[in-house]
Each structure stands twice: as C-alpha cells, then as structure tokens.
C-alpha cells in the first residue's frame, strides 16, 4: 500500500458555505516531509482516522465513513469536521488511486502542541492484493482485549467507540496472531464476548441469519458490515445485532472478517479449529462489495 | 512547552561501536515539516517515547529512561535501540534546552509503511512552569482504566508496561479530569486497585512508609518514582511496592503524582475530599528532584 498522493487540508480555513473548498487543500509529495515533529498525532496518537475503499476510482460508502469521522471527533473532543470539505478531499484523493483497488485515508489530528490546531490530511494509495484472503480465507485466533463488555458505558474516556490513531494495541494483536501462525485476530471482552478484529468487523452465520456483535460502544460501527447487512437483507436473509459469547462464534456455520479494503475474508480456521468456507457465497459478497456503493 | 530544537536520528546508520555517532544525527527546524504522512507513529500511534527532565542543561536519570526505552522496544517488537546513540542524542538535545527547566523527548517510531524503518528523533523544549502544582498541590479524580489488575499477565499484546505513542486514552482521561474540575487523574483497575496517572506515577505515604503500586506489567516503571524511592530510603524512610486498593489511597496520610518534568505534585484533593499537603516535606522532595541526578 505505497502512498501515491497526499493532500494537506486546512480545517481552519474551511467554511461549510465556501464556494471553493479546493482552495483549502494543498497537494504534497507523500514521500517528502509534510508534518512537524510537534504533531500530536505522532507524539500521542491523538487524532482520528478513516480508511475508505476505492474501486476503479469510486470511493465506497463515503457518507458512512464521514459520519463515523464526525462521531469519532465528538468522542475525542476534536473540532467538528467540516463534512463538505472532507467529502471534497475524498473525491480528489480517490481520483489519484489509479485503476483497480485503492484506499483513501483521512486523518484528523489534534494538531501541533501550542501551534495551529487541528491538522488534517488525506492520502491515496494502491491497495494490497487481498484476493487470496477473500477466496482461500484466513486463520484467526481469539485474543483478550482486556475490557469487560460493559466497560465503555462506565468509562467513555476509554474511547472504545472512536477510531483513534492510537492503534499500537491493534498492531500488537496482529503481531501476536502472526506469532501463533494465524493471519488475524478477533478480540474478546475479558468476560468472553466477541468484539471485533484489530482492523475489521466480524459477521457470523447461523442458518439463514447473519449476526454481528451489538454496537454498545465497545466496538467501532463497521461501515462494511453495515453495507453488507443491507445487501443481505435485500437478498432475503435475516440480520441481527447480538451479544455473542465466544462459544457461539465457535459453533457458527460460517464467519467473516469484513473491512473497507480487504472486504469479506472468510474465516477458515478459528483458534486452530476448521470452519467451513462457502467459496461461492463469499464470492457473491465480495462481488457486491466491489460494485460501486454510496 | 514550545519546541526549541529537533534532531532526526538515523537508527540504521548506527553502530554500537561507531566512533562518531553524531554523524547519524541531523538537526531540523522543529517548526518545519520533518516527517512524512506515511509515518506509522502518526497513522497508528505505533512507536515508543521517553520524556526526560532537564535542569540547567543537565538531563536527569538518563540511564533509567534509556533502559525503559529498551524495555518498551522489546514489548513492542521494535528494533533494539542503540543506547550509545540515544545517549549522545540526549546530550545534544539537553544542551539546547536553555536555562532553567526543560524537557528532552525521545521518539522511536516503527517507521514509514513500506519505507525505511524505524524512524527516530529527539526534541528539546523549555518546560512549562509547574511551580504552583508543586507548592499548592493538585486536585485529582480516580478514573476506571477498564482493565483488571491481572490483565497484563494474561494479555501482553495490551502493551500495558510499554510507553507507547498511543496515548489517546491518557489524553482523554486528562480532559475528563478537567471536566470534573480537577487537574489530573489516577487510573484504577476495573477491580478497584490503584494504577498510575495518565502521565505520572503515584506515591502515597502511610506513617513513615512510602508506597507505590507494584509494577506487575499494568503500569510503567516510573523513573522519577524510582529516583525518589532511593532518596527516601537514604533519608531513612521505608519504601514499598504494594497492590493498593483505592480505599487505601483515600486513607493515605499524603500522596503525590511524580513525573519527569512536573516532578512531585502533592495531591490536595482526591475525588473532592481534601488530603493533607506537607509543603515543607514536598519542597524537600522537589529540591532533590531539581538537583543533578544520574
């Protein structure tokens, strides 16, 4: 996922009614220095982000991503994002992703300590090739996230529902999964309920019903999961949000990790036990996810 | 704490035996762009740091900080820091802190995605004026950290003993404290034990004994706490590491938050209840902390 393009965004110059938001953007070389060492994103992981899938130049589910950016900003006491400005930035960045699949990343940082605040930018990159994960499936291990399922209700300062830049634990969980000869992880609450993956949502299948962990603040609202649930409902399947004990995941007829760029990756092994992968059905999900979606 | 100076460090060029480590440093303008948008420190809070107090040009407790940097790197699967190189960087940065009190910050980032890795830099800044916090004391609220006291033993991927750049929760806890009309917070485990403050360690006093939470992996090893314990022992006091239920903190004869730059800040109010501040004794602690320490 080498960066092809970067756009610095001036959030202070933005005005919801400005006729030409493009004047608040500055294209920069993604390989050249663009941020100062005083950036709080870099010093404190203090900011929020979104990763938007792009297919053939079309950014997917932009409004859902922008809504989540606004939600994250609110949870983190960051200035309210100017949605019209971010939408314009996504359009420009998406056009720089090239052919095939790409990813546009939006970052809103708390800014520079004692400096202008916030800082914001968008990047465009070619996506990695995830075709193997989509067709062959992935091996997943469950890892304790340390929090009880009711922690977020008690302690909003844990920012569990915000997509912050503080992803060191998510990255460490992926390294732990690799150490265990797996491709990815599923976080469990300390009391044994299924949460989410470090960079994806979980959907499991029980008969003709598709189930995802209830968003109670402990997990991110998954934009790809939301989109897939609409699609599955339109195909006549039941969809449900539930509090899912890990044993229920182990007994599922099938399960997927779904995210904006890798899309639907069927879980073929969970903690060493095989899970059934329905290749044809999974392909139909990814066909949908690769079609232009707004 | 405006930055006065920044030094980019080339960790790949470093060699423990290099005769001139200074050739691996490049001074940069701290107000000018120095980092690319692809930096994983900024995208993922994926890296580690240290903040070293500087008094009259002398960096305090450098070896303890470098040891913790190495410890954090190990927990985060980062390349082993070249301690000789970091020590040389600290000396240069400390000399740029000016008169009075300053702070040298060391950052080791996982680097640029698909680029050179890791990246590293040091900054020098004048410290904020903390004399009021040191003399008048601070109001503190307790906040749930969400984890049980035994979480780190079960789940090392939570990185609880590492000083990572993923500090969004620490910053959110400080904002929550301010919302509650307090100056700072003390984190509690979900099962009610005292951990640490978002950017400081806790020491409490019971008679002639000074107690700090036992380092079981759930908290950082506090360099200032370690130094103060040595000092207190030399003065004939008892020191102890204990698992501290929050009620014990409430019953303490006195308590302090201690850290590298603010130094010893006596807690004058805990969750709205007054605590005794011994101004003279606290001044003696800060006199010690302001003296040159190695």
From TrEMBL, chains A, B:
GO cellular component labels: cytosol
The identity of this protein, by name, is: 4-amino-4-deoxychorismate lyase
The UniProt entry, under Pfam families, shows:
Aminotran_4
Keyword terms, alphabetized: Lyase
Q: Which family does it belong to?
A: Belongs to the class-IV pyridoxal-phosphate-dependent aminotransferase family.
> In Gene Ontology terms, what is a biological process of this protein?
carboxylic acid biosynthetic process
Q: Which SUPFAM superfamilies match?
A: D-aminoacid aminotransferase-like PLP-dependent enzymes (SSF56752)
Q: Is Lyase there in the keyword field?
A: yes
Molecular function via GO: lyase activity
């Amino acid at each position: 996922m080498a960066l092809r393009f970067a756009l610095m965004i001036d959030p202070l110059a933005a005005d919801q009614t400005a006729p030409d938001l493009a004047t608040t953007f500055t294209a920069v070389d993604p390989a050249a220095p663009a941020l100062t060492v005083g950036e709080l994103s870099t010093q404190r992981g203090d900011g929020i982000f979104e990763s938007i899938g792009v297919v053939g130049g079309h950014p997917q589910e932009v409004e859902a991503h922008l809504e989540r950016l606004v939600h994250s900003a609110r949870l983190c006491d960051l200035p309210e994002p100017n949605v019209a400005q971010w939408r314009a930035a996504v359009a420009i960045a998406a056009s720089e992703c090239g052919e095939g699949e790409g990813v546009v990343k939006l970052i809103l940082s708390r800014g520079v300590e004692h400096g202008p605040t916030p800082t914001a930018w968008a990047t465009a990159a070619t996506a990695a090739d995830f075709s193997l994960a989509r067709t062959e499936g992935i091996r997943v291990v469950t890892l304790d996230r340390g929090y009880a399922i009711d922690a977020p209700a008690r302690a909003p300062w844990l920012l569990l529902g915000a997509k912050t830049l503080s992803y060191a634990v998510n990255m460490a969980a992926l390294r732990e999964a690799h150490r265990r000869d797996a491709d990815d992880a599923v976080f469990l609450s300390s009391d044994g309920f299924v949460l989410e993956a470090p960079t994806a949502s979980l959907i499991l299948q029980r008969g003709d019903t598709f189930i995802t962990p209830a968003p109670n603040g402990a997990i991110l609202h998954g934009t790809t999961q939301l989109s897939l649930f609409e699609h599955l409902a339109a195909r006549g399947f039941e969809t449900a949000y539930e509090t899912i004990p890990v044993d229920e995941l182990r007994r599922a007829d099938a399960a997927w990790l779904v995210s904006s760029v890798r899309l639907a990756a069927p879980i073929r092994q969970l903690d060493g036990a095989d899970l059934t992968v329905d290749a044809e059905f999974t392909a139909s999900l990814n066909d949908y996810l690769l079609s232009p979606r707004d």
